[in-house]
Design goal:
Blueprint (H helix, E strand, L loop, with lengths): L30 H35 L1 E10 L3 E4 L4 E6 L6 E2 L4 E10 L5 E9 L4 E3 L9 E2 L4 E6 L5 E7 L11 E5 L7 E9 L5 H15 L12 E8 L13 E7 L16
Antiparallel strand pairs: 1-10, 1-14, 2-9, 3-5, 3-8, 4-7, 5-6, 7-9, 10-13, 11-12, 11-14, 12-13
């Protein structure tokens, strides 16, 4: 049987597909979790940096509040004169300035005029020896000069007895106690020198006597820029090196600057001066 033209059979028609449900989006493979932990790590890092900076600033402020700046400090030494027992003439010098000597070392010779048992004049050579170890301060007496008892052949200083001296305003003394540590610096020295507060030097005498002594000290040192009356409200403070190594190689007369850390020292130590009533 012939089918009508323009028509197709049901079997030959294309099948109609059923609508498909949309596929779920592909899951991210751990990307979101990594970014989340990285963000948390950055936040924690910023917080830690902020806390560290705050602690540094607080520590710096506390440290500055505990510091008392010092006036110029001078490294000093007590001179030890080496004298002769008899009048004589210097015939030899065996040492020079800044030379280190030991106890009993020969420093030079003098020629002493004496008489023998018959009363005849006699010249005797006497060695001048170091009574203790030390360092020669300056050039000894020259050969050919006369010397008598009471006149030094030369002067020594003991490097173990070096001291720092400075002027401290009276208002700062109640804050300073013996054994507190000072940090000192000087030009030409690439390290910090540490010293400990020892004592203050009382100014005994009338104010006029003190001013006169200060004026003489300034004149002898050639310092005319400071009026002696400016020291009326100050005291001289003495500091000792924290150890012998701190001042090894240093020379008396060197100038330093620095500060005292009031957080150091032996707890409970009395202050240098008490202003309490």
């Amino acid at each position: 049987m012939v089918q009508p033209t323009g028509t197709t059979s049901q079997d030959s028609a294309d099948p109609i597909e059923e609508p498909r449900a949309p596929e779920p989006p592909a899951k991210r493979r751990g990307g979101g979790g990594w970014r989340k932990w990285r963000a948390r790590f950055v936040v924690l890092l910023l917080l830690a940096a902020a806390v560290f900076l705050f602690l540094r600033i607080s520590s710096a402020r506390e440290s500055n509040a505990a510091r008392i700046d010092l006036d110029t400090l001078t490294l000093t030494a007590q001179p030890l004169p080496v004298e002769v027992a008899q009048t004589g003439q210097v015939t030899g010098v065996s040492v020079t300035a800044q030379e280190r000597v030991t106890a009993g070392q020969k420093l030079g010779t003098i020629e002493v005029a004496t008489t023998d048992s018959n009363g005849d004049p006699k010249l005797t050579r006497v060695d001048v020896k170091a009574p203790r170890p030390g360092i020669v301060v300056d050039l000894p007496v020259t050969v050919g000069s006369s010397i008598a008892p009471g006149q030094p052949f030369l002067e020594l200083y003991d490097p173990a007895l070096l001291r720092f001296e400075t002027h401290v305003p009276l208002k700062d003394l109640p804050e300073i106690a013996p054994s507190m540590t000072a940090s000192l610096r000087a030009e030409g020295i690439n390290r910090t020198v540490h010293a400990q507060v020892q004592r203050i030097v009382p100014q005994v005498g009338s104010l006029q006597d003190i001013d006169f002594a200060n004026a003489n000290a300034s004149a002898n040192s050639g310092d005319t820029s400071t009026d002696s009356t400016d020291k009326a409200d100050q005291m001289t403070m003495v500091l000792v090196p924290a150890s012998a190594e701190e001042v090894r190689g240093l020379v008396p007369g060197m100038r330093f600057t620095g500060y005292v850390d009031t957080r150091t020292g032996i707890p409970g130590t009395a202050r240098l001066v008490s202003m309490g009533r």
